[in-house]
């Protein structure tokens, strides 16, 4: 990671307000359970990394995926970091790291559109607590076949315009 020091305060809870060209949604971040992953997301968001990226992979009834600066599904921040142990399931609104195998997390993340029974291979670091209608609007857009042969490439991709990190209540 470019800045391995912890920029989040473990005594504070954080939310991320994600604004897109389809509306906004709010993610409650789970730094208590996955501090390294939340720290990575907060660091990237604070530097404007996600601004102007798109949701490049969209599968109605499954998930929406973004966070790739190239928009291809193959890009990232230029580094990878290890998975973190977590407790959780992939229910509607769950936010987790996308990866290409164990310990290959970077900047890409996905949000569950509906509940799915996935193996615990993707570090869960948050949950959408407001704006699921925006997630629905992104998940139900028209898609076509991409380079991988999967029908998940948006015809008119939704762009993230900003991610605002908001510190909340102090944890005791």
Structure commentary:
By secondary structure, the chain is mainly β. The chain has one domain (12-170): Cyclophilin, CATH 2.40.100.10. 12% of the residues lie in helices and 35% in strands. It has 2 helices and 10 strands, in the order E-E-H-E-E-E-E-E-H-E-E-E. Strands 3-4-6-5-7-2-1-10 form an 8-stranded antiparallel β-sheet. The chain has a two-stranded antiparallel ribbon with strand order 8-9. A hairpin with a 2-residue loop joins strand 1 (12-20) and strand 2 (23-29). The mean pLDDT is 94.
Highlighted features:
single chain, 172 residues, mainly beta, Cyclophilin, eight-stranded antiparallel sheet, two-stranded antiparallel sheet, 2 helices
CATH-defined architecture: Beta Barrel
The biggest sheet, with number of strands, parallel, antiparallel or mixed sense and barrel status, is: 8 strands, antiparallel
Which structural class is indicated by helix and strand composition?
Answer: mainly beta
Low-confidence stretches: none
The number of helical segments is: 2
Average of pLDDT: 94
Q: How many domain regions? A: 1
CATH superfamily: Cyclophilin-like
Distance between the termini: 29 Å
- Overall shape: it is globular
CATH class equals Mainly Beta
- By CATH, the topology is Cyclophilin
Note the run of SSEs as H and E.
Answer: EEHEEEEEHEEE
- Kindly report the spatial arrangement of strands forming the biggest sheet: 3-4-6-5-7-2-1-10
Overall number of strands: 10
């Amino acid at each position: 990671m470019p800045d391995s020091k912890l920029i989040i305060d473990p005594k504070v809870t954080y939310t991320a307000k994600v604004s897109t060209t389809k509306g906004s949604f709010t993610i409650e971040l789970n730094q208590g359970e996955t501090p390294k992953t939340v720290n990575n997301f907060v660091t990237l968001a604070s530097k404007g990394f996600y601004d102007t990226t798109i949701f490049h992979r969209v599968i109605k009834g499954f998930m929406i995926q973004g966070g790739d600066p190239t928009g291809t599904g193959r890009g990232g921040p230029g580094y990878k970091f290890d998975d973190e142990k977590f407790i959780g399931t992939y229910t509607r609104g769950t936010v987790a790291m996308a990866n290409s195998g164990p310990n290959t997390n970077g900047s890409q993340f996905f949000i569950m559109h509906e509940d799915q029974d996935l193996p615990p291979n993707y570090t869960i670091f948050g949950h959408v607590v407001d704006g699921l209608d925006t997630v629905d609007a992104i998940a139900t857009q028209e898609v076509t076949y991409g380079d991988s042969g999967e029908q998940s490439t948006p015809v008119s991709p939704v762009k993230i315009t900003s991610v605002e990190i908001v510190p909340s209540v102090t944890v005791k």
